[in-house]
Design brief:
The complex is a heterodimer of chains A (419) and B (272). With 419 residues, chain A is an alpha/beta fold. Chain A has three domains: 153 residues, Beta Polymerase, domain 2 (2-Layer Sandwich); 142 residues, Rossmann fold (3-Layer(aba) Sandwich), CATH 3.40.50.720; 77 residues, no CATH class. Chain A contains 16 helices and ten strands. Chain B is mainly alpha-helical and 272 residues long. Chain B has nine helices and no strands. Classes of the chains: A alpha/beta (419), B mainly alpha (272).
Chain lengths: 419, 272
Amino acid sequence: MKLILIGMNYKTAPVELRERLQNYCSNQDVALPDLMRNSEIKEAICLATCNRIEVIARLGDPVRGEDFLKSFLSRQGNLDIEEMEKYLYVYRDIEAVLHLFRVASSLDSMVMGEPQILGQIKEASRMAVDRHATGVLLNRLTHHAFQVAKRVRSETEIAGNAVSVSYAAVELAKKIFGSLKGRSALLIGAGEMSELAARHLIRQGAGNIFIANRTMARAQQMAEEFHGAAVPFDDFPSFLPEVDIVIASTGAPGYILNAQMVAAALRKHKQHLLFMIDIAVPRDIDPDVGELDNVYLYNIDHLQDVVDANKALRRGEALRAEELIAEEVAGFEKWFNSLAAVPAIVRLREKTDSIVRGELERFSAWLGGLSEEDRAHVEWLVSSVVNKILHDPITVLKEESSEGEELSDMAAIRRLFKL
Amino acid sequence: MTETLLFKAALAAYVASAVVYGGSLLERRVMTARFGAGLMLVALGMHTLYYIFRWFAEINIPSVGGYDTLSFFAWVMAASYLAMQLRTKTRVLGAFVAPVISVLMVIASIDLGGNVAGSAALTGTLVIAHVMLSVAGEALFAVASLAGVMYLIQDRLLRRGRDRSLIHLFPSLHDLDRINHLCLFGGFSLLTLGILAGSFWARIVWGSHWQWDPKQVWTLLAWGFYAFLLHQRLALGWQGRKAARWSLLAFAALLLMFVLESFFFRSAHTFL
């Protein structure tokens, strides 16, 4: 297939080196023309993210092409080739296909199942297409990779569960409220964690956000950012009946919320469900609150457990994803092999077409005597006979080549038809 | 014979749906549950065709007596469950609903095509309305209770459970509460109408609205339970655990009535 994938990622190369290459490769207007200038590079895509730099290419001569790519990368990385090779991985042909499918499906990512990488590959491939750096093979390959990634996402749970504490909280909230649209939240304490959680809530459509913080200025600053309202810290209990979600993260030395306060708020709240997260250490909310009807209280340890369990779940799903990818790689290989039959099929068609045209030409005097309609019928009849005869040999050619075996039937057809 | 075939096909599809839903619980996959819902839809379609065929063959009006009632009960459960799916994410609630439907259908199939004509008094539009409305109401209560059971399980899982994948698989508390609420509301309206139809008809046939029939007493008691529960929900905003528990309690009363009445009492309502 003369396909090569060469590059480095967060596992094989230090960040300083990746930075240097990324700076260069992310400027596709320079990097792609530089690559394509070499005559051994027939098609190329350059993928540069903060975690990986990879070049995927179809080569003319595999050995010379590979040497060129290695020296190209080491030149940009400012290293000797020997030095550079320590950081590089090289995948050829089917292995390259497998690697790309795995990367696109986020199996090779730092956080397995993260969705960004697919977008990054799409962007890189679009850049290459726009600069006419790709052809049949890479277009088909990247297109197939997107499909594989989509299949992995929908048929496995690899991206199904939260692997960060703040997102785990949001997932739990969804199992309580269904949708977070229009749900309101109270943040007690305006730390980094609660800010992150609030961001997730808003992305899920949460409505009013109230922020209570000891330093009012910080609360106001955050309120502005989230289009929420800053409330005086000592007043926060009076906002409890107004909200569905409470996120506590103050530096207070003891509990600032007890069961009595929450029960009183719930009575005014008409027994709505209340979801509370206590990410403060030491804790802000008395654990007794969690025993109340319709109150769901989680502390940082609960959430960390959720995250750990989800990570294990993803590792299990990764195995299923690998099976799926192996299947898809086989499918791609089949398509690629069937390409071998294409020249012979094209030649066969050209030959029969020219015979048909020649014969129609020869009888043009007689055809001229027919009506327009009859002439069309005759032409249709001739070409349909030819197509029927060709159908079986062409099918055989396609089947034989997609099996990837010795092409003995193709040789026979070439000989018989003098192609 | 077409209708017998349709009934059996519907039964088979309900059972298949129950098995697939069970599989989705074991496998912990929502995708599988969707497949189960599809099977239930197929089953419901054939079950509906079965009634249409019977209607045209004029064998008898559906669900006036006997095991036939169970089949209609199952039909309403399936239809209301699938209708819920249009409005909320029911996810694996079907894993509770489908087996109940399957069991009802199996029992109903014992007497398939048998003589279901009751006494001569059991004819007329009012009787049919009485039976169909009451059975439909009770079937909705059954779905409400199953949603209630699932609510209590999900509540427990969320409080103590470490079973992350099961929490993920079950519907959200909000959705379960909504299903419970909608089914209670619909069921209560239908049952009330059914009781009214029955009492009018009793007035015509026996000359009095009230017979002190054991089933009447129990049903009224259960009706009272449900009336109370709905009042608390609508007026006091009862939600969640308490509401779910009460809906189970009320349904238990209904079930108890059914069992007692079938095995210990003889009444105008005994057909089985």
